[in-house]
Amino acid sequence: MKVLITGATGFIGKRLAVRIAGRGHSVIACGRSLDKLKNLSQNIIPTYLALEDKGGISQILKKEKPDIIYHAAALIYGSRENLMRVNSLGTENLFKASLDSGVKKIVHLSSVAAVSGNEEVPLEENVPLKANGPYGESKIEAEKIALKYRKKGLKIAIIRPPMVYGPFEPHGMPYLIGFLRKRMLPVPGSGENRIHMVSVENLVDVLELALSKDEIYEGAYFVADKEALTLRELLFFITEVAGAKGPFVIPEGVVRVISKLPFIGKRISSLRRDRIYSIDRLQKKLGYEPRVPVREGLRKAVLSYS
Ligand SMILES: NC(=O)c1ccc[n+]([C@@H]2O[C@H](COP(=O)([O-])OP(=O)(O)OC[C@H]3O[C@@H](n4cnc5c(N)ncnc54)[C@H](OP(=O)(O)O)[C@@H]3O)[C@@H](O)[C@H]2O)c1
User: Fold this and answer.
1) Which of 44, 52, 169, 198 is deepest in the core (most CB within 10 A)?
2) Phi, psi for residue 97 in degrees, rounded to 5
3) Which atom of ligand 1 lies at the shortest distance from residue 9's CA?
4) Looking at residue 306, what is its pLDDT?
5) pTM over cut 0.85
6) Is residue 241 part of a domain?
7) Ligand 1: distance of its center to the CA of 74 in Å?
């Protein structure tokens, strides 16, 4: 098969490219900083693609005629304007060019951020789109574009991971470890709220299913680990593996007082929230059981920075 991956120079896209190339498929690995794709595999063809460049995208798709596109390019941080330009307009450019060039299947990397404005625990996939900030809003716009192109005939899988961890993940873990080394991260109160994440290996397993399972192109799927650690378990486990000093615990009485303060109160409530995503649909519809246990995946991830 010929597989095109946008964002192949990024954390998730690169793991996916290596996995799919390892299965013998030909991978058109797209990004802008192509030096990150050097010497990975003969099956990986580094290709320059900017999501803003409609003409460039069309040219690549018409030339390569991929059987499937994985859309993993996005901005995770930035101004609202940049997030919308890349995550929303860029997605529209890619999907329109895909339709015009006869591409049949797309796997769209969305995020739980598209629904994390909802409070239910656990969250189910069918809650309304509702975000907590500009990144989530840009992912909502991208999901709406995906739904629009589904109606036009494209088969589009919508995959919503929570925080993804794995070796050399650049966005969250290095900062978490840095703060734990300096004892600068708080556990407010008991820290018994649960934080659901996903190992990059488990996520890539599910993304790979899009090559063979048609059920993935219906609705949307949360993809998360089987087990969710509590905030306390998570931070103390990372501390132990990294040999860090650890978090500092804020006693429950103090938490109750500072929770009423204007800015810090909001941060504390956010830290105390359960973030659990139902993977029932993933298990029942796709028959997928998360392969990598959370502590095993986390240990590998944390050790990659030492
Ligand atoms: N990491 C997580 O915890 C997480 C959680 C939930 C969902 N997701 C979603 O998963 C996807 C991949 O995330 P990631 O962690 O792998 O992100 P990443 O490491 O930041 O990689 C982002 C990729 O997007 C590309 N990109 C950015 N702007 C672009 C543009 N204007 N034109 C073309 N390519 C552009 C980058 O390419 P260059 O650097 O080469 O320009 C890079 O390959 C994203 O859709 C993200 O929203 C991630």
Assistant:
1) 198
2) -65, -35
3) 43
4) 86
5) yes
6) yes
7) 4
Angle at 126 between CA 211 and CA 217, to 5 degrees: 15
Amino acid at 51: L
Across-strand partners of 1? none
At 244, which amino acid appears? A
For residue 33, the CA-to-ligand 1 centroid distance in Å is 12
Burial class (CB within 10 angstroms; exposed 0-12, middle 13-18, buried 19+) of 142: buried
Three-state SS annotation for 27-40: EEEEECCHHHHCCC
**pLDDT confidence of residue 263:** 87
What radius of gyration do the chain's Cα atoms show? 20
Ligand 1 center–CA 210 separation, angstroms: 19
Q: At what angle do helices 173-181 and 231-242 cross, to 10 degrees?
A: 80
Q: Domain for residue 67, yes or no?
A: yes
Question: How many domains, in total, are found in the chain?
Answer: 2
Ligand 1 lined by 91 (C-beta under 6 Å): no
**Burial classification of residue 293, based on how many CB atoms lie within 10 Å of its CB (0-12 exposed, 13-18 middle, 19 or more buried):** middle
For 82, the token pair is 């940049």
Q: Looking at the domain assignment, is residue 200 inside a domain? A: no
Dihedral sign, CA of 272, 273, 275, 278? positive
What whole-number distance in Å separates Cα of residue 197 and Cα of residue 162?
5
Beta strands in the chain (DSSP E): 2-6, 26-31, 44-48, 68-71, 105-109, 155-160, 164-165, 186-188, 194-195, 198-199, 221-222, 229-230, 248-250
The pair of structure tokens assigned to 16 is: 């996916």
Residues 24 and 141 in one domain: yes
Q: Are residues 124 and 255 in the same domain?
A: no
In angstroms, the CA 177 to CA 182 distance is 9
| Residue at token pair 């339709």 | 99
> Tokens standing for 272?
């105390």
